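Final report, closing paragraph on structural work. Over the funding period we assembled a curated collection of sequence-structure pairs, and we close with a single example.
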Amino acid sequence: MKIIPVILSGGEGSRLWPISREQHPKPFIRLEDGRSLLQHAWLRASDIAGVDEIITVTNRNLFFKTEDDYSEVKTEHLVTNRYILEPFGRNTAASIVSAALHIAATHGEDAILLVLAADHIISKQAAFLEAVAQATELAKQDKLVTFGIKPDRPETAYGYIETDSCQVVRFVEKPSLTLATEYLESGRYLWNSGMFCFSAGTIIKEMELHAADIVAATKVCIQQSKYAHGEDYSQLELNRELFAAVADISIDYALMEKTDNVAVVPCDIGWSDIGSWNVMADLCEADEAGNRVEGEALLDNVTNSYIRTDSRVVGLVGVDNLVVIDTADALLVADRNSVQNVKQIYAKLKQQDHDAHKLHRMENRPWGSYSVLDLYDGFKIKKLEVNPGASLSLQMHHHRCEHWIVVSGVAKVLCEGEHFVVHSNESTYIKAGQKHRLENEGESLLIIIEVQTGDYLGEDDIIRFEDNDL
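Its predicted structure, as stored:
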């Protein structure tokens, strides 16, 4: 039976603000090794024997960002990437049923789905592969399989699974500390990882028994949706209006807590769900005072704190048990006991439609990076750094014009089919509606100051026609 990993990737970016944003959610956060959580999920899936295709279910607006991330690591494995692109988040039941219906239609109902989250850390790859092999065998027996993590502490941030051998007795919501301690001592409970394995036919049949409305609405949506590149099935863009009719509910509530056909694979795979800044802090080694530091920080009489700074020096004096996250345009200071409430700050920013909830001022791309230097009504100033030999995609903007001033290097520009060169201390102008591409064919870094003008300057005002950088 063919096994197809399905990576669920998305989220609002609220719990790990200000590093995560609406257009830069948790899966895109980079770890100390320089790779994102999403890249680790893809590499983890592509390492499974026999896998030659991975499906990513994500928001339509995150497609190019996802491709950019995959482009950095996909040369390591010969795996085909396919996508189911949602117009907005609709929870895991809709995502999984969409993937199951798509896979059943393209590979048959016997194909095995391995559902993975893009924001998990799994440090024991060999143990993970062994757990996947066990789950696959159970899935071949028409079981709905979930992965249960053996707990090593009384954790109140995770849901639990009560087990009897490999059988699931019940799913339990996030418990109090007292209950979590009892669960740990009993030896009968596992953490609910949110990872699953089942055949396409089995998950569809079980959903039709327990949540038939979700299957019916999703089928109608897929029938009226389109593949972006015809019959190669690489990108299925779900119909916005019909997708809104699919219930917004998790797969646990919709199915797993109702059916008696669930098996569990207990595993110790070095699993962590990155759900708060405290969990991120635990990924760093602590010094003798209990402090964990990423970036440049000066500390005096500071204990048990986590400091992360991208570019500036951060100084702390005489404090304890803080989380300090510093970015180019936003600073978070929180007591470590209150980090779960960071999402309240995010909600207020979103209510105000503040840019700090949407995106970062500086973004890395496969071709280099860009930084927003200033932003006003009607114009935006950016710095583009294009690596030697790199190029941006052929693209067009509906609402904005762009003035490019070369301050270092030599730019090769394609605009409306015409190629020309712009040297240092020279400039060019790209009108709204013109197809264009920027390239650096030189051996040194190309630096451009870009002045955008127009009535709308959002990063989503872009149509990409082809991507040489992918």
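The radius of gyration is 24 Å. Residues 292-343 form one domain. We thank the funder for supporting this effort.
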